[in-house]
Write a structure and sequence with these properties.
Oligomer: single chain
CATH class of the domain at 349-590: Mainly Beta
Largest sheet: 5 strands, mixed
Radius of gyration: 32 Å
Number of strands: 61
Strand content: 35-45%
Structural class: mainly beta
CATH architecture of the domain at 349-590: Beta Barrel
Strand order of the largest sheet: 34-35-36-41-38
């Protein structure tokens, strides 16, 4: 742990401060980016997913998670658990095999790589001889069968990865045992599938790509039976009774073959479920359900990876963007909601907002509203239950809110290891969009082919990119929520436990204030519905503020005690009274020379987005195979849109600090807004105030006059500009914080009223902390004279990208904590700066400097944690605090007995086998004693 020290004698307080900070990346939330392999261990009840980036992730019961990363920069193509063991094998696309184990250490399991292996063929042999295409982990737990592109089957002993050359099944050996009709060498190329006989482990079925299937005896080393399939093979499955083999083929057919003595001349059953004249993609997998129903899975919409396995009660399907678990025991086969691996990016994430320590009442109301949205899910519990979650219960209830491109805001339970979905708010219903209400994959007419229904929630289609949510602010005490979007719309919503139909009152705010010579060249604003809007229980909109021009909202804050909302764009900022539904004031910050601010970020992609939306609707109506192609086009358009929006965030620039010209683009862009009750006119009278910081290094302060409570609904709120500060280097203002007389940041609105914070000190001098991209500067109030500052390193190009106040508690003393400023730079480094004396405390590298989107997506919590996107679908969670750490703490125990043979399983430790047998003997003795105590 990195600690900070002071020279000289250390006081008790200094010793406590040494235990405040510790940096850890703790857990990854969301769906793995670009999954490429899936496996399941029935004995461990663990799920394993491999990715194209070389990561391997294991999941069990909620909270049981493990992650490993291969040193090789190669994709994981296959994952296989060794039966009844805690080992698994991964195959990478560089043809290397890797052995992993779950090893216990200090009462917790950890995923470790313990070996690697690459097949080496005969000298001069072509690469296809050893290119692994199929892997079978034998039920003995001691062997791996490796089928190759060249048709060979190698047998390798594990865990030591020793090739058993005398037991290998060579191409020549197979050809000599195949009838003359199948000797054609190409019929024996490319081992597509390997399956073990479930009732006889000495027999395996080898499926070749051109259709030939051979049953091989591992002991006698000879072929027992040949199955003369002629169509290209996609998969094989041996039924649980060992009496039939199922094969699926590229023409959409499946066949059932009788297993017995002698070769099979014809199949028992061959069928193409939807007829040869129907268009269809090949079945990838099939099996018999326990009710004797045959389940056939097609790659109808999904491109590989499309991997699945059968759980005793469910079908688990891994597709490229989500994991779908289908309840096979309930009529209608509903989907079981996943407690993890949720596709956070079901619509692209555009912003996020974290709220700590949610009051129980609000938590219960949001949960209740969310439960009404989940009636289509199965009531069955999550079927994957392996391992033990040993993490302590979360000390508080935390929410993570994510804004999305389709105009939704999703509420996630971020209290623990699993990021659970709680509630989804949609804002699209307030507006008229180009969406077609009949665009529904489940609305096909009777008899229409294919008779499939859509499952899962991933859908990159966006009705209108202007709906995208850019800023969110939730008051956890009052239940008021405000969200702002790409087209300058600001919605104010209130939590309601009952459905309601009401008209949303709209106010248009002209941020240019009638200035001439400016013409907006961007997108138009959204058309609002004039008729009443029916809102389900949850957050319901009652007021809309529409900025003109309809530029992206770049700053937003809410003060629920004063009933005020402040908002800013690249043209200016304004204050809105949502109780009286009136605009208090508007300030234009647009520089006359800033013509770029008059071009919307959507203008350059507007035409392609419109074209794609029209194309997508045609695809939905016709339901043709080109859907995937257009989804990719849409995602490319979304990527362009994100790049345009990133310009508004000003991507990191690495250069020396230098004075910026007032002619620089976007100088009027509002970066931060802040409410405070502090001293502006004199040191004797505090007053409500609003502070705004711009991209040109300017800070504006407004004194607010609020009517008395009894007249609040009638008398207007007024505002008067009191201060204006221009930073010397015109560096963008990233944040503003007011410190009270004790040097402590002011509490949140209503926090004191709910007895969750002490009242701020109003007797000592208040201080203004202005956080710019280049330095932290403290001013005294009300005179606004500079007191102290801390410059960020200029030579390496460091610039502040994110800043937030957090509380750090000692891990040794429950009574000691202090506030600090958490800062993320464009280099991806985290700093903690002490308050009020702005001294650098600790410094940790966190995000790669090249990961611009990761840096831009970072959000801090109030207790020293944070989240940032490591991919479009995953949040990385980190902690700077020694006290507040959320991370998996799991234990996976070794199975003592094989479920199939009731024998002791092999263990990593050579002595464990004898221990298992001894435990079994002791258990039998105990049963005998209980039956006959004498």
């Amino acid at each position: 742990m990195k600690r900070f020290r002071r020279h000289g004698h250390e006081s008790h307080r200094d010793k406590l401060k040494q235990e405040l900070f510790q940096f850890n990346k703790t857990v990854e939330h969301g769906f793995p980016h670009q999954p490429s392999a899936l496996s399941y261990s029935p004995s461990l009840e663990l799920l394993a997913i491999g990715t194209r980036s070389g990561a391997i992730k294991l999941y069990g019961a909620p909270g049981v998670e493990f992650m490993g990363l291969h040193d090789e920069n190669a994709a994981v193509t296959q994952v296989h658990f060794l039966p009844n063991q805690v080992e698994l094998v991964t195959l990478l696309d560089d043809n290397s095999l890797h052995m992993w184990t779950l090893r216990a250490h200090q009462g917790l399991s950890e995923l470790l790589e313990i070996g690697r292996f690459t097949l080496t063929g005969p000298p001069g042999a072509p690469p296809s001889v050893t290119r692994v295409t199929a892997v079978l982990a034998h039920s003995s737990g001691e062997l791996l069968l490796l089928g190759t592109e060249g048709g060979h089957v190698f047998i390798v002993e594990v865990p030591g990865f020793r090739e058993l050359e005398e037991r290998n099944i060579s191409l020549d050996q197979m050809a000599s045992s195949v009838p003359d009709d199948y000797i054609g060498r190409r019929n024996l190329e490319h081992v597509e599938a390997l399956q073990e006989n479930p009732v006889n482990p000495d027999q395996v079925v080898i499926g070749y790509g051109r259709g030939l299937v051979v049953i091989w005896d591992l002991v006698k080393q000879c072929a027992l039976q040949h199955i003369p399939a002629t169509q290209q093979l996609e998969s094989v499955w041996w039924t649980e009774d060992g009496q039939h083999i199922l094969s699926s083929h590229s023409d959409g057919s499946y066949c059932r073959w009788i297993v017995g003595e002698g070769d099979v001349n014809e199949d028992e059953k061959s069928d193409i479920p939807y007829g040869k004249n129907k268009w269809c993609l090949p079945p990838v997998y099939m099996f018999f359900h326990h009710t004797c129903r045959l389940i056939i899975c097609y790659t109808f919409i999904f491109e590989p990876p499309f991997v699945l396995f059968r759980h005793p009660s469910a079908l688990v399907v891994l597709v490229e963007e989500e994991l779908v678990v289908i309840d096979l025991q309930t009529d209608g086969w509903p989907v079981i909601q996943t407690p993890y691996l949720v596709p956070l990016h079901s619509s692209a994430i555009t912003c996020s907002h974290h709220v700590s320590a949610i009051p129980l009442k609000l938590w219960e109301r949001v949960t209740a509203a969310g439960s009404l949205q989940k009636t289509h899910y199965s009531k069955k519990p999550w079927p994957i239950t392996g391992g033990q979650n040993l993490a302590p219960d979360p000390p508080q209830r935390d929410l993570l809110l994510t804004g999305h491109e389709d105009g939704t805001v999703r509420f996630w339970d971020a209290s623990g290891v699993c990021l659970n979905p709680m509630y989804k708010l949609s804002t699209a219903g307030v507006f008229h969009t180009d969406a077609d209400p009949n665009d529904n994959m489940n609305s096909g007419s009777e008899g229409e082919w294919p008779p499939f229904r859509k499952v899962g929630c991933f859908d990159p289609y966006s009705d209108d990119p202007r709906l995208g949510i850019q800023k969110i602010h939730l008051c956890k005490y009052s239940g008021y929520l405000t969200v702002a979007g790409t087209a300058g719309q600001i919605l104010v919503l209130e939590l309601n436990d009952e459905a309601a139909e009401q008209t949303v009152e709209a106010k248009i705010v002209d941020l240019l204030q009638g200035q001439e010579g400016f013409r907006w060249k961007g997108h138009t604003r959204l058309d609002m519905r004039e008729e009443p809007v029916l809102s389900p229980p949850g957050f319901q909109p009652f007021c809309l503020v529409q900025c003109q021009p309809p530029a992206v909202v770049t700053a937003l804050t809410l003060h629920s005690e004063w009933k005020l909302v402040a908002f800013g764009t690249s043209h200016g900022f304004g204050l809105f009274d949502y109780q009286q539904k009136n605009t208090v004031f508007v300030k234009c910050t647009l520089n006359p020379s800033d013509q770029l601010a008059m071009e919307g970020p959507l203008s350059r992609v507007k035409s392609i987005k419109k074209s794609l939306r029209q194309s997508f609707r045609r695809i939905r109506r016709s339901r043709v195979s080109l859907r995937k192609h257009h989804i990719n086009n849409l995602q490319e358009a979304n990527a362009r849109l994100e790049a345009e929006l990133a310009e508004m965030e000003l991507a990191p620039v690495q250069r020396k600090i230098e004075a910026r010209s007032s002619d620089d683009s976007f100088t009027g862009l509002v970066r931060t807004l802040y409410f405070a009750d502090t001293f502006l006119s004199d040191s004797a009278h505090n007053t409500p105030s609003l502070w705004a910081g711009t991209n040109g290094g300017c800070v504006f302060a407004y004194m607010l006059r609020l009517p008395n409570v009894e007249h609040r609904a009638d008398e207007p709120v007024t505002a008067q500009q009191a201060k204006e500060i221009q930073l010397m280097h015109r560096a963008p203002v990233v944040g503003i914080v007011i410190l009270d007389g004790h040097g402590v940041p002011l509490p949140e609105p209503l926090e004191v009223a709910h007895d969750l914070a002490r009242s701020p000190d109003m007797h000592g001098l208040h201080h203004l902390l202005v956080i710019s991209e280049e330095q932290f500067k403290v001013f005294t109030l009300p005179k606004v004279s500079a007191k102290m500052k801390l410059k960020l390193t200029a030579l390496d190009g460091s610039r502040v990208r994110r800043a937030g106040v957090a509380w750090f508690g000692s891990n040794r003393s429950e009574d000691y904590c202090e506030s600090g400023l958490v800062v993320l730079t464009n280099q991806g480094d985290l700093h903690v700066v002490s308050l009020p004396n702005v001294k650098m405390q600790v410094h940790y590298p966190c995000i790669r400097r090249e990961d611009v989107s990761g840096i831009a997506s970072c959000v801090f919590t109030k207790h020293g944690q944070g989240f940032y996107l490591i991919s479009p679908s995953e949040f990385e969670r980190f902690s700077l605090s020694t006290r507040h750490v959320v991370e998996p703490r799991s234990l996976v125990e070794v199975p003592l007995y094989s479920a199939s043979s009731n024998q002791c399983s092999s263990q990593p430790d050579g002595n464990v086998l004898d221990m298992c047998c001894l435990v079994g003997v002791l258990q039998e003795i105990q049963k005998s004693l209980e039956a006959d105590p004498s």
